[in-house]
Amino acid sequence: MLALLHTSPVHVPVFDALRDEDHPGLTLLHLVDEDLLARAREEGPEAVAPAVAAVLAGAVAEGAAAVLVTCSTIGGVAEACAADLGVVVLRADRPMAAVAAAANRIVVVAALRSTLEPTVALIREEAAGRAVDVRTLLVDSAWERFEAGDRDGYLDAVAAAVDGVPATDVIVLAQASMADAADRTTTAVTVLSSPRSGLRAAALATTYGS
């Protein structure tokens, strides 16, 4: 069984659909805690580390063989819990970051300021010391639309921002909730999102334990 830690319930059907398409038969345990993101935005990701550890420990107690964390803001603190849990804890954006890190010029797009720093740090980590030009773009007001339930408005705002990005090699959609915006863009630049590649890596970890 693969446990998924979300900070919004909107991710549940997204990952269920990806599971049905790519990994039929994989059992998913969805854990949703919106307060984790709210607190991390106010106090910083480290402030929620104990709460994240408790949630993940509960998932392992329920039989999870691996955990996928779909929130970019708390992904780093969640991964740090792996040693104590004895199972793989993977942030959903790590496989995406690994692909992005192979490029020279990267633009990270986010609707939450709290997501930018962790995503940039992850890309630099995956670049393993190779010099990369990483720039960031915050999509003003997009998150307000997301919180209001205006999914189309949210995705359209993200897509418009992506289409306005100047010359670069790759564009990273830092939040899992942004993934469908890639289908609404007209840019010729490669646009990366995290859900499919993140679930693929977690499914492998669930099967093989590494």
Number of helices: 10
- Gap from first CA to last CA: 14 Å
Calculate Rg over CA atoms.
Answer: 16 Å
Number of DSSP E strands: 8
Percentage of residues assigned to helices: 40-55%
Q: Helix- and strand-based class?
A: alpha/beta
Spell the H/E element sequence. Answer: EHEHHEHHEHEHEHHEEH
Average pLDDT confidence is: 95
Principal-axis shape equals globular
Largest sheet: 4 strands, parallel
| Proportion of residues in extended strands | 15-25%
Question: In order across it, which strands form the biggest sheet?
Answer: 2-1-3-4
List the uncertain runs. none
Can you offer a commentary on this structure?
By secondary structure, this protein is of the alpha/beta class. The chain is built from ten helices and eight strands. The protein has helices at 11-22, 34-43, 49-61, 75-79, 82-85, 94-100, 113-127, 142-147, 151-163, 195-208, and strands at 2-6, 28-32, 66-69, 88-91, 105-110, 133-138, 170-173, 190-192. It has a four-stranded parallel β-sheet, with helices on both faces. Strands 6-5-7-8 form a four-stranded parallel β-sheet, sandwiched between helices. β5, α7 (113-127) and β6 (133-138) form a beta-alpha-beta unit. α1 crosses α10. The radius of gyration is 16 Å and the shape is globular. The mean pLDDT is 95.
